[in-house]
Every structure is written in C-alpha cells, then in structure tokens.
C-alpha cells in the first residue's frame, strides 16, 4: 500500500509569500535565511571581541624600527616611497647607481651562464661515455666508475686497465666494434622511447649463478648512473635557458636606459629613439 500511496501525485509544496503590504521589503525571510544572517553576525561579533582583547592587552613599550618609516592613514599602512628598496630613509636611487647595479648584474649572469655551459658539456660527455661503456676523463680516481664489455664494474687500478694509463689512447679507444649486446640492457635507451606498440616481453629468468647476479647488479648500477646524469643534464639545460633569458632582458634594459633603443613604456605605448641626421 505504501508504494501506491507514493505513486499518487501530491500537492506541490509552496513557500509562504511576502504579504502585499510588505513587498517593498523584498522576499519573505525564511528560517534558513535567518540562520545564515545570524551566523555571520555572531562571527563578526567574535572578531570584534578578539580585537578589543588584543588592544586591551597591548604592550605600550613595544617598538619596531618600521614604526619610524611608515604610518597609517584611516587604518591603512602607508610606507614612505623608496624605503622598502633603497633603505636610505625614503630616498630613491639615482640613475647612475641603477646603471652601475645593472652592469654588475650582467657580469654576474655571464659568469654563472659560462659555468653552467661548462657543466652541460661535462655531463653530455659523461652520459655518452657511460652509454658506450667507456669512461673518458683526466685520470682515474676513487670516484671513477668503469664498466667492462659484459656490463660488470671494473676497478681502474686493476692490472687489466694498465693499457689505459695514457688518456689520449683511452679517449680514442674504439673497442665497441663487434661487441655483442649486453643481456638485460635493452631498455637503456632512455624514457623517450615509445614502447606502446611493442609486444609484451616475457619476464626475464632469475639469475642462478654468482656471475649472472653480479652482471645483473652491475647493469642496474650502470642504468642508475645514466639516469642520474641525464636528470642533472636536463636541470642544467633548464637553468641555462633561464639565465640566457634573464641576461637578454637585462641587456635590453641597459640599452634602453642609455637611450640607444626604443621600447614600450608603462602605458603600453611603443616609442623609438630619434637618430641624428648624418
């Protein structure tokens, strides 16, 4: 019977309307409207009480140096012009000082950009050497890592590496011809390779002998070293791009300040510098 009772159409619910003599005051306020208005009123009352309590508990001897360089007008803090930048008691910097500061900034950016480019060249060389299985460098130190033909990690101080004492011969070493591909290193081409269309490969068998385990561990270490160098190389290239952009913008500002190039003012109006007729 309850289902039949729910199937019958019932009278639509209608809210009580505002009386005709009160229509000029808008819609009739309902309970939910009053609840929202009361909640907002109580929240404002709590904020005012909290501010009154802070004002009553204020320390009269409290002092900050910012009180000397700023003031309040109609409850709004107003700082003196240039006080936040130059620190010279509200005085703005002269044009000559600004030009000198921009010159120093340009010199600093050029130095950092040159250092970043050297780092990029070094990382590119290390990535190429690790991918090819050889290490090109000035000398073998304790931090040098060399991988052999089978992917195993070699000791640079080993007797087998005596033939690479001369770094010129080592840099020109071409021992990769005819080398068989390393087992388990097919995925060292990097994350950019598209493997969506490739068929699913079967799981590789677990290593059984100590030699296979050592080769697998060396292959993992080599892959980790390559990924680390690639991440550092990508970060260095991003830093080089940011430094180049900043240097170019700063040089444009210096040229515009010397009156040798046009530009765009604060209003967005383009202007050109007049050239003297020769």
Automatic annotation (TrEMBL):
The keyword rRNA processing applies. It is found in: Nucleus, Nucleolus. Residues 106-133 form a coiled coil. It comes from the Eukaryota. Residues 149-171, 183-198 have a biased composition (Acidic residues). Keywords: Coiled coil, Nucleus, rRNA processing. Residues 15-24, 199-215, 235-254 have a biased composition (Basic and acidic residues). Pfam families: Utp11. Residues 1-24, 147-278 are annotated as: Disordered. GO terms for biological process: rRNA processing. InterPro entries: SSU_processome_Utp11. Its main location: nucleus. Residues 172-182 have a biased composition (Low complexity). Residues 218-227, 269-278 have a biased composition (Basic residues). GO terms for cellular component: small-subunit processome. Belongs to the UTP11 family. PANTHER family: U3 SMALL NUCLEOLAR RNA-ASSOCIATED PROTEIN 11, U3 SMALL NUCLEOLAR RNA-ASSOCIATED PROTEIN 11-RELATED. Involved in nucleolar processing of pre-18S ribosomal RNA. Component of the ribosomal small subunit (SSU) processome. This is U3 small nucleolar RNA-associated protein 11. It comes from Cladosporium halotolerans.
